[in-house]
Amino acid sequence: MNKACTQLAEHTDGLHFVTTIGEIEAGRWDALVQASSASAPPCLRHAFLDALEHTGCVGGRSGWAPAHATLWRSGQLVAAMPLYLKSHSYGEYVFDWAWAEAYQRHGLEYYPKWLAALPFTPISGPRLLGLTTSDRAALLESVLEAVRSSPMSSFHLLFPAEDELPLLENAGLMIRDGVQFHWRNEAEARTAATATTQSRWRDFDDFLASLNHDKRKKIRQERRRAAAHGLELRWLDGHQASPAEWDFFHRCYSITYALHRSTPYLGAPFFRELARRMPDSVRLLIATRDGQDIAASFFLCDQRALYGRYWGALEHLPFLHFELCYYQAIEYCIQKGLERFEGGAQGEHKLSRGLLPVRTRSAHWLADTRFSRAVDDYLTREREGMNAYVDELNERLPFRREATD
User: Fold this and answer.
1) What average pLDDT is seen over the chain?
2) Which of 44, 213, 271, 290 lies at 20 to 30 Å from 80 by C-alpha?
3) Whole-structure pTM over 0.90, yes or no?
């Protein structure tokens, strides 16, 4: 792989892999992000990926070895892909542990593998960054050609944008379906019997009024229980939050991982650096009791959406998680006029709190044709099960079905 990765000063036209995103000029990378999607999430920006590398969250012995793909023409960067060589499957949110285990049982090496993804970030968006559609197609073709000639077991592209699916399918990649839960700031989400002409919710009570009686009652009870803790809440962006507040958040975040007997992926320096380099794209919500900070949640944010990421608390307080991670986020979106709140990976419990099922995708290629056929068959059956699951979820939507209930 080291031979494939080159310094940009030595590049010629064509495909080149680089071992750090710092080798790519930030303005060039971000121009590709903007050209690929006017609504790309902030985690695609050069500063986000560079902060991960600069603070050691990826690279080194993390199991994430940067190998970002760049496509050049006439001295111009025309396409790029966030790409890594992975020596494990942690931090991906699309689970292929069973595939790795099957390889191991047959005496084959599954790792390292190629992974086109945003580390630790299950947020959908463009993964084929290019000035034009033809540039993005050329990038994918060139990367797959390099992948197929490498000794690696497989290539995986996670959480692509919806308009990238035809390119991925036409390239012969296997598509895998997943589901997340997102809240949308749309009053039309109510049934026809209760819909009004307004386009967005006026306030949280307006949103609550759209839910059926049981769900509305449950949320009000949970919020009352959370309010009974006597907490003061404050929202901060990267301009406002101090280094000490970021360190406090990281302490809370680490506690959450410790409770699950796991180790956090991200260090405190990452959050401080991200706040410094992308102050308008981060939000910190801190809960204080009797003058002492006791809990915090962290979000990414852009002009359209709020993205829920991490949270933690110094002590267990019933219903505080729902308040800091969901209800406050929904209120924030309503107040700021944001289109949606993405609640992160998994979590069927989010449905009863007004977050609705949304399809996610990933794309996969396996070098071993025997395993490729088996996985393709598995994905077909899994997709049928996912279709049934989403249908079931849509039958359990929390919104009112009649004008009165």
Assistant:
1) 93
2) 271
3) yes
